User: Fold this.
Amino acid sequence: MKAAQGFGAVVLTGPRRAGKTYLLRHLFPRADYVLLEDPDTLAQVRADPRGFLAERRPPVIIDEIQHAPELFQYIRSILDRAPRRTGQWILTGSQESTLMRGVTESLAGRAAIFNLLPLSVAESSRVDLFLGGYPEVLARPRQRDAWFSSYVQSYLERDVRSVTGVRDLSTFRRFLGLVASRHGQVLNRSDIASPLGVSVPTVSQWLSVLEVTGQILLLPPYFENFGKRLIKSPKLYIGDSGLACYLLGIRTRGELARSPFRGALFEGFVAAEIAKAQLNAGGRKELYFFRDRPGLEVDFVVPRGGELWLVEAKAGATVFPKDAQAIRALLAGRGGPKKKRGLIVYQPSARRSQTTVAAENVKAVDLPTLVAALNNKKALA
Assistant:
């Protein structure tokens, strides 16, 4: 709402079905609403874009505007004629690459840009490792498998084809499964390309599609003065833990508890929650991992003001001093901000008993506590 009071346009991007439309219609209940996935509406736009916009009475929500990127230049001309009018155009889109290109070329300086990811643990107590954060899954958890099946199919048919023109969707679906099986690992494109029988450049292109449509997180390595012999490839996560579980064939909570992927899934869950906290605060994603060639590794490095938070994720309720060894090694090292903080994020049991680490400068916290601290709603001692 504050952004709408300061800019002529607001742009909200994010993965399909993350809740963009619901949020905007709730915030702007009196706005004129247009969905550009409707064929008749889209035909009208393409036949007469200037006339289409002239018929609208601001404020106007234009949903899925990536289907008609030509509208950006016309909206720009409207804003330039009335530069002091704010909150006129609220635009949403699922495919960031097309949408951002239109914004940077036509609406630079005229639009506030936000990225909406699925719900976080700070927004709903129903969000967890098994269900993830998509609102419709949380509302109807018994329909989880059917919803994710439909989501994957519609994603393949709409976003993938429209972004890249991929025709062999069966191979792309196998690619999705391979990506899920590498969840939490350092990215090796050749390792993914080989079993699919496609080239490494093709895998790189497909990974780019997954990233710009909000399906994966690629975490770059942190390499500012912690060491010299460092891993250079990014780390790969499926963005939503519920979708990751589905792609891995995990159909019940019992299967999740026994799964060899449980640790990696919790790690990805923590990564997504950190990214959501940063983006929901209006900032940008600043999330890294650390691993050197001798094998010293810390899951996440999070710049936080003048501090550097070193975060380990542990999918269990018991945290031992040995779990803090890698963090302590980096805390003792040179380079980076002088002030560093070590945190181990654990997954509490049903009783949620507090677990501490007998190690200097390293604290064990549960995920809601970490997210509250990132949102400045709770201080870490």
Notes: The mean pLDDT is 88. The chain is about 40% helix and 15% strand. The CA atoms of residues 160 and 181 lie 20 Å apart. The two ends are 33 Å apart (CA to CA).
